[in-house]
Amino acid sequence: RFAKTYYIPSVTTAYKRIPLVGIFSKNVRVTMDFNFRGGKANLFSRLTNLKDPRVLPSDICILEVKLDNRMPKWIKNILMKYQLSTQTYSKYTNTVDKILGSRIIVDEMLK
Predict the structure, then answer these.
(1) Bridge partners of 30?
(2) What is the pLDDT, as a whole number, of residue 18?
(3) What are phi and psi of 34, to 5 degrees?
(4) Coil, helix or strand for 99?
(5) Are residues 11 and 40 in contact, defined by beta-carbon separation less than 8 angstroms?
(6) Which of 22, 109, 39, 32 is nearest to 64 (CA)?
(7) Between vectors from CA 61 to CA 57 and to CA 62, what angle results, nearest 5°?
(8) 3-state DSSP call for residue 30?
(9) Which helix (H) or strand (E) holds 24?
(10) What average pLDDT does the chain have?
(11) The whole model's pTM is what?
(12) Could you tell me how far CA 15 lies from the centroid of its own chain?
């Protein structure tokens, strides 16, 4: 209830996603997100375009590996081979930083 009353989106993040699901390992899902663009909240009501600012450079792709249980050995081997590591990245938070800078928006009702 609090979120519906006080939180209003200040920006929108948009990106392309390639989802992959394993044929042999149904508990493994991989997504590749790229072409990150951001804009004010009105981006919900229109399509993104080339004028919308990039949140990340065009050559960056975020690879997400989602697992139901333990990580299979073959995935561990691939991650080690390409020296990939776990990192956290909030698409929304980084869009806020890119679009609004360091400004903090405080709802007037909370003052």
Answers:
(1) 20, 65
(2) 96
(3) -155, 180
(4) helix
(5) yes
(6) 32
(7) 120
(8) strand
(9) none
(10) 78
(11) 0.70
(12) 8
- Report residue 74 as tokens: 């073959």
Render 34-93 in DSSP notation, one character per residue.
EEEEEEEGGGGGS---TTSPBSS-TT-EEEEEEESSSPPHHHHHHHHHTT-------HHH
- CA nearest 89: which of 69, 68, 60? 60
Phi-psi map region of 73: left, alpha, beta (phi>0 left; psi -120 to 50 alpha): alpha
Cα–Cα nearest to 100, from 14, 42, 51, 39: 39
Q: What does the alpha-carbon distance between residue 30 and residue 41 come to, in Å, rounded to a whole number? A: 28
Per-residue pLDDT tens over the stretch 24-59: 777 888 899 998 888 877 666 666 666 778 888 889
